Amino acid sequence: MRIGELARQTGATPKALRYYEQVGLLGAQRLANGYRDYDERDVRLVKEVRALGAVGIRAEQAKPFVECLISGHEQGDDCAAPLAVYRTVVDDLETRITELGRRRDTISELLREAEARDAIA
């Protein structure tokens, strides 16, 4: 199938599909006329990358999941390498949550101080 059909079947844009190819997640065959040619396996790979993206795992981090699928596993996280990605993403999220909590607390304190000044005035 050509890139437009793959895009329709997966909900990805052709631009995203070309990007996935650029970062090594897809390896399209080329037809004699130079068009990319994809198969059903590529549909599964793109759906995996998009599902990962929906939970915050960037395309650049998806290669271990794709490689796991290509190697014949039923799920993209049936191998050890994707589990390491999950751990890294969870750690990054925990760091961001902590930082956001600090920022929230600082802004809340600034708000209380400003409201107290406003009540006096």
From TrEMBL:
Keywords: DNA-binding, Transcription, Transcription regulation
Alphabetical list of InterPro entries matching this protein: DNA-bd_dom_put_sf, MerR-type_HTH_dom, MerR_fam
Pfam families reported in the protein's UniProt record: MerR_1
Domain of life: Bacteria
UniProt domain HTH merR-type: residue ranges: 1-68
Identification of the protein by name: MerR family transcriptional regulator
